Here is the input.
Amino acid sequence: MENALYNLEAEQGLLGCCLLGGMEEAVAAGVDGAWFYDLRYYEVYRTLESMYERAEDIEAVKVIHELRSNNVLDKIGGAPAITDWQDKAPTKHNAPYWLSEMFLHKTRRQTKAKLESALAAVSGASAGEIDDVISSLQSFILDIKDHVSRTTDETLKETVQEIVEEIEERYNNKSDTPWGIPTGWLTLDNALGGLRDGGLYIIAGRPGQGKTAMAISMARNILLSGVPIGMFSLEMTRKDLGMRLMAVHADMDMTTVYRGVLSKDDFKRISIGTEVKMLPIYVNDRTDLTTSMMRSEARRYVSNHGVRLIIVDYLQLLQGSKDARKQGKYEVVSEISRGLKLMATELNVPVIALAQLNREIEKKGNRKPQLSDLRDSGSIEQDADCCMFLYEPPLDVEDKSHETLSKRVNMAIAKNRNGQSGGDIQFEFQPEYTKFIPMSPLGR
Here is the structure.
């Protein structure tokens, strides 16, 4: 029996294939209760799956015995049903056909249920609650779309060809950064290989170490190369972000700007600073963003404006889902971390996320941060392709930089899946200009 939401013949046909030795196909496809409309048939499948996991031979006599023991046999019409299903198969090689039919109807049922749930949820909902519903719906649609669009098996044939073509292009162009978007700092680019599509890059530090300034300084370099950027600023308003970008672009001393004590030279610098309005950066300064909402906006930036890089300031300020919030901060940060990596992969762009380090690092002296110092969750280091930590190294006796407004800040590359790790890059940080200047090659 078949209609738009279920196909009982397909469910019986799949069970017949499993009885004839096709369990491996069903297990590989991830068949579970959601695939079955008739729960009696799912009970049969669970029995077959249990026998498969116990490495037992799935023979009709044994299956009938198991079903009888589990009080399922009479529900399906007795032993004749088993023979009938085998006839519908009629061999285990028909499993892919029945699986595709069941997947189609399962997807229809899930989509209908999700849309009905969303319709019910928005009735009388507040603006914030509607945002949550839309974000949830968008995530569902993306996940479903990803599964539905995969109609053929994927091999490395096309992938290897793409790699060879990219290697040839790099060879012909003699690019300094072998794979990704250049940050504008050669030492960092050589260590990272540029910012790679689909990569999640974490820049972490304690408050005052210049995380946002580092991101803005790097963003300015990238923007000047013509690469569009989308930035989610959960801590700073669009206006504050614009002023900082103007400062780094024109070497404007923000202390004089804030005090209103400006010279003619300062006004010239402000004029130069206004050039940033022409840079292709798109800023979202909402403070109540969830990862789903952010993915939706980022998708729009990539689609409508050709954005090639996403920056998030900062990770721990994103909102978790209701379920994650019920479980605690660790689960929230884990969900956010995973969401950022999924966003990078889905949009095929690098994502730079700023993050806080644990307060404990300050209790142990001014030491070099480690991956275990990432705040609130160990999943950040697992999801990230690269983790970089900003910290102030102990000053040498002869080092005079502490006598000026600038200070030394090191970037420790603690994890790097696609390049060097374990070393430090030294920067001069000029807070008044929101500016980082590389000082030395990567050291160990």
Summary: The chain is about 50% helix and 10% strand. The mean pLDDT is 81.
